Amino acid sequence: MSILEVRDLTVTFPGGIEAVRGVSYEVERGEVLGIVGESGSGKSVTSLAVMGLLPTNAVVSGSVKLHGQELLGMKEDEQIKVRGKTISMIFQDPLSAFTPVYTIGDQIAEAVRVHQNVGKDKAAKRAVELLDLVGIPNPGLRAKAFPHEFSGGMRQRAMIAMAIANDPDLLICDEPTTALDVTIQAQVLEVLKTAQQETGAGIVMITHDLGVIAGMADRVVVMYAGRPVEQGPVDDIYYRPRMPYTMGLLASIPRIDGEEGPLVPIDGNPPSPASLPPGCPFAPRCPMKVDMCDDEEPPLTPFGSGRHVACIRSHEIEHKGLTGADVFPVPVIPPNEVVRVPRAERPTVLELDDMIKHYPLLKGAIVKRRVGTVYAVDGISFDIAQGETLALVGESGCGKTTTLQQIMQLQPPEGGRVVVLGKDSAKLDKAGRKSLRGDLQIVFQDPMAALDPRMPVGDIIAEPLRAHGEKDVRPKVEELLELVGLAAEHAERYPQQFSGGQRQRIGIARALALEPKLLVLDEPVSALDVSIQAGVINLLDELKSRLGLSYLFVAHDLAVVRHLADRVAVMYLGRIAEIGTVEDVYDRPAHPYTQALLSAIPLPDPELERTRKRILLEGDLPSPADPPSGCRFRTRCPKFAVLSEAERRRCVDEEPSVARLANAVDHGAACHYAEEVEVITASDNQEEE
């Protein structure tokens, strides 16, 4: 018997907005059901409706049965008895889900006492046991800490501890790893698997990360415009998709084991629930659209064993053996002429030589005194040649953003040198900095925060042109809009009238206004759906080839880095751990930290994900105010644990510097015992028949 049965679930908000339209699925005991789709597809609203957590103005109809008991229409006091005991939810943002004024231990103990007749002491002991189960170090001590004293990964693990406190039969996980570093994500997913083994619970995993679903799910529901468009076993969905939308999603994913070349974007944006198109909601974006697609919305119909597809051309897709690359046109990006010249013969556009940036650690409300130092960036060196992309990667807190700030400010660093386009930042005056800023521009992570909502897009793009003395800017603005794939008439609109991908294109257009030679990209696609992300990545690739740009690219998504970068520098706690070409670093990583990063990246390939070996790092990143002696990575290093006592002593006493590896031209690692290891198994095919 199923734990959860959802039948024809519909959620309507005021104004007749149908956010969820006839969702049906079941979850068996011990099963993981993955729900995927772009933002606005109704994934989270569906889960909140199941939990009974929607606002009172939402009209919910259909049926949600937990162990045969109907949840819709249940009284609030009865729902409270079920929530947290039989069914639990792990939220996307644990910081806002925890109460900030109570300790973590008290909040978990409260969840225990609400549903179990136990005393305070026993509940507190159970809270410590749960924190230990999910891998929180020193659980007895950390139970007394407040939510803000936990790192993001620790908060998410504590949220999982609270969710499993009463051994629920069903766990609903709403984007549980979205905001986490890939190493912490791997730890959290491992904790979820452990929690499922301990409780035997069924799991509903809601995420936009198709790699996570490939490794965890047994069955998958693909949602679009508030309803399922394809569902079935995970292997069928990934290797034999029969709905063009599913095929487009899978084809648009950058892969660390994939071939180079343009990604396959899905043109356009998901429709608004308030104004759905006639017929199939996906038809305006579908390359396989025919006139019949506009007549009526296709129902979700059976398609083989355990499969359901909502597409009138699904049998044709199967018969012809079509793949995502067959259905969606692959963009053609012209070759980059600049890189035909050997790297050593091209001019250097950016050079960092042993750059240092420290911050004082102050104490005191009125009279502040220095009590320490934050070693944000502690001596890093790299360079970027003309027409090249260098990616700076690493966990949050490793110093990537500080490095960008030091470069963009064009101010003298505390130590070392920053040379931009041949000019030392320490020797620049105010006029020199203003002149150089035209050649050095930045694209920010959050385009909505970077664009002034009170200004039309045309004025936003024209602003740097006017600041540098240009008068007739309108022709240039129109040219820039067309360059990034937007129309000239968009100049009159405001940022809030555009989608996330379009806003990022506007940010890129503004950055290109002064025809820079070096573009700094700060997580430019992390806030975008994978289908929209593919188009922006292709645009950046095309602009680099067409305009001969150089990029400094900061990212935490290593699959995107593999696709866009020529060289990679891996940072850890203010230092460079490994640097080299993309091929060397990804195919033959030599530093244990790089190996752990790459092994933690989920692949959108169920067979590979089930057989891959993870290198899980213990604990969290040490504080940059108190880095370990010697090798900064040794406190989390898997290799350190198997070294001899003499070898460990060297790691403790002597800090390694980046040294070129044997038989390598451009590949170095800061490890006393560096050893090249293959951690990614290349896939022969993304889709099989």
From TrEMBL:
Q: Which residues form the ABC transporter domain?
A: 4-250, 350-598
| Residue ranges of the TM segments | none
- Origin superkingdom: Bacteria
Q: How does it sit in the membrane?
A: Peripheral membrane protein
- Listed PROSITE patterns: ABC_TRANSPORTER_1, ABC_TRANSPORTER_2
Coiled-coil boundaries: none
Similarity comment: Belongs to the ABC transporter superfamily.
Q: What is this protein called?
A: ABC transporter ATP-binding protein
